[in-house]
Amino acid sequence: MSKNFLKETLELFETAVNDNKAEVNIMFVDQNNYREKKYKGMMLKTTPDCINPVVMEIVGNAKEEIMKRSLDDYDLLVSPDDSTQTVDKANVIYGSEIIEQISADYTNDNVVSENTDLSKIKFMVIHIYTNGKSIYFFKKYVQPTTAYKTTKKYTISGSVLKPFKENIITISSTVDAFLLNDKYYIFNRNSFNSMFAYKDVYKRILTENSESIKSCGFINNTDKFISDCESDGRYLVRLTKVILAKGFEEIKTRKNEMPKVIKDFNLSLNLSETGEIIYGGKEEVPEILNLMLRHYVIDALTSNKMIAAAIQEYKAV
To answer: Which of 6, 33, 237, 290 has its CA at 20 to 30 Å from residue 168's CA atom?
Structure first.
């Protein structure tokens, strides 16, 4: 989907909201990744006059962000500020669980009230529906500042100062991501990962590919290596990227090149007589992952040996 097409689609939703021809639903989400059910959605009762102005700002800001950034596939490690990263809906395993809780049928159990503990709200979802089409915006919830929470609050009633005890709800006009059709468009990857517990996606990919990692025969004590990576968020993400970049398939066909790389870059890794890496423990994980991700490179200009932060394929014509 091109940026111009996205812009035009966002403008259709923006116009529908402006003309009161769209249904707008706002849901606050209580998120706890340690519960069996991670997400509890609570609908926010509002009126078009009250909510439509900020919703139009939300759509407008999303349109501006789309046009000034590049559109790129989701990258597990690199997240440039000038990029909108995209990921298929099918790869966001908790997305449906969250969206399915959006409802226009308000009950005592699914509505934000004066008794709602707003401190447990982690993010919000803005749903716009018009002409049979939906778009969903996601935003980490901004809690009132510490100063607001710890000070006495007053308001003017007539000309008299009176205590103000009601809860304050904040709605920002910027968002972290939106879902349109079957694709998420991500402006803030850290917030996106947090809202959708994306770490669980990495673990699922690792589980599904653990046997193929073992079958590559590039390292002994594979179970321990996988376990050490899974238990550390930094290594889990990088190992997942190795899988998605087919790094294990690559090393399987080029296993005989490992001794030279280990020697040229003075790595601490040891090899068995059959050419497997002898896994000695978690301290060796960074070097192993760098090897799998092909981060050990020789600069074509200076011939210096370097560790690359990221690799972009280049093939001479």
So the answer is: 33
Q: Which letter, b or e, does each residue of 280-310 get, where b requires 16 or more Cβ atoms within 10 Å of its Cβ?
A: eeeebbebbbbbbbbbbeeeeeeeeeeeeee
- Asked if 79 and 131 sit in the same domain, the reply is yes
**Domain encompassing residue 63:** 3-197
In the numeric block, the tokens 């007539």 are attached to 158
202, containing H or E segment: helix 199-215
Q: Is residue 282 within 8 Å of residue 232, measured between CB atoms?
A: yes
Domain end (from 197, 225, 240): 197
Token pair 């969903």: residue: 136
How far is 283 from 155, CA to CA, in rounded Å?
A: 58
**Residue 314 placed within a domain:** no
Question: 78 and 145 in one domain?
Answer: yes
Q: What does each of the 317 residues of the chain score in pLDDT, given as a tens digit? A: 789 999 999 999 999 999 999 999 999 999 998 888 999 999 999 999 999 999 999 999 999 999 999 998 887 766 677 899 999 998 898 999 999 999 888 888 889 988 888 889 999 999 999 999 999 999 999 888 767 777 887 888 777 888 887 778 888 899 999 999 999 999 999 899 999 998 888 888 888 888 888 888 888 889 999 999 998 888 998 898 888 877 787 777 888 888 888 898 899 999 988 888 999 899 999 999 888 888 877 777 777 777 776 655 544 44
For residues 30 and 58, what is the distance between their CA atoms, to the nearest angstrom? 22
| Pair (144, 287) in one structural domain | no
